[in-house]
Structures are given as structure tokens and as C-alpha cells.
Amino acid sequence: MRNLLKIGALIRTERERVGLSQSELAAQLQVTRQTVSKWELDKSYPDVAMLVTLAQTLHCDVRVLLGMKQKQPLRHWFQWRKEDKEVKWYAGGQERRRVAVALLAEMLPLLPPEQAALKQVLQKQYALLMADGTSVPYILMAMNVEVAGVMHKEHLMLSPQAEALYQRLMRLSNIRYR
Questions:
Q1: Tell me, what's the pLDDT at 94?
Q2: Could you tell me the sign of the dihedral formed by the alpha carbons of 54, 16, 43, 25, in that order?
Q3: DSSP string spanning 80-146?
Q4: Are residues 100 and 61 in the same domain?
Q5: What is the CATH classification number for the domain harbouring 18?
Q6: ∠ CA 56-59-64 to the nearest 5 degrees?
Q7: 86-133 pLDDT, tens per residue?
Q8: Contact predicate 135/93, CB 8 Å
Q9: Backbone angles phi, psi at 56, to 5 degrees
């Protein structure tokens, strides 16, 4: 599988911004220097948990590592302006993919340990989003079905914050034509 998101240059830029060598960053993340090098060369990518840890270590938002705009401080939660929309109605798969990965990266740490089955489903979908070969709306629709099944079977409820992120994630699967 090919890495669709080219995040290596962004990881390198942020690493250099904080003044760390590949070896120093690797030591802090408890990975090898070669692993950091592969990320920076876009030969592999960090899993979702590592992406969150990497962002924390580099003192930046996950969205920065994914090449997205820095998260704006939220105004009242239902007062959205036109420019606050995450993707345009005509956005292509790459833009939707970036937003979906960022939302998953924000959502996964919010899930408590007793929701391990749900976390596993979402981590699998993260891996699919990072890999080549499957359309983003298809992944998101399949994820919705799988998540609904796990939540029903396990009788799970999301926290309000995780639910809001999940709703934003599901809106990405809506492709509207004008």
C-alpha cells in the first residue's frame, strides 16, 4: 500500500522548528531513528496513537502535521461561519481524507479503556484512510456501519465531545452535488 498523505516534510519542519534531531525525537517517542526517517521520507506513516504523541512532542496540533489549517478557537458551538466549514461541498478525496484522519486522531484519545472494541474499529479505519485503494466516502460509510454495530452490541455511549467529533466525521461522507 502506498502512503497517500505526504506528511513527511511537515514532520521534518516541525521537528526542526523545536530543534530536535531525528535521533532525539526517536528517543522521546521510543522508536528508532530509522522510523522517524521513514516518516519524513513518506515511506511509512505513524499510526493514529503515535500521530497524537508526535504532535504533543513537537508542541503542535495534529492538524499541522496533516497539512491543515491550525485549529481556530471555537466560538459558541453552533455559531459557524461559512469559512469554518471543514471541507467544501465539492472537496475531493484527499481533502476529506486529511480531515477524517485529524478527527480520528482527536477522537481516539477521548475513548475510555472500556470502549476498546470501538477504538479498534476506529484504528482500523484510520489505517484504511492512510492507505491507497479505497475511496474516502466508502471508508466513512463502512466505518459508520461498523461503529453502529459495535456500539449496539457493546451498549456503548460516546462522551459529548467524542460524539461531536464523530458527527463531524460522518458529515464528511456526504457528497453533495449542486
A1: 75
A2: negative
A3: --GGG-SS-TT--HHHHHHHHHHHHHHHGGGS-GGGHHHHHHHHHHHHHHHSSSS-HHHHHHHHHHH
A4: no
A5: 1.10.260.40
A6: 90
A7: 555 555 677 778 888 888 888 988 899 999 999 999 998 888 888 766
A8: yes
A9: -65, -40
* Number of independent structural domains in the chain: 2
pLDDT, one tens digit per residue, over 1-56 is: 454 567 888 999 989 988 889 999 999 999 999 999 999 998 988 988 888 889 88
Residue whose C-alpha is closest to residue 126's, from 152, 157, 90, 98: 98
Which residues form the domain of 40? 8-65
Cell of 82: 461559512
In a domain, 1, yes or no: no
Q: Tell me if 84 sits within 8 A of 72, measured CB to CB.
A: yes
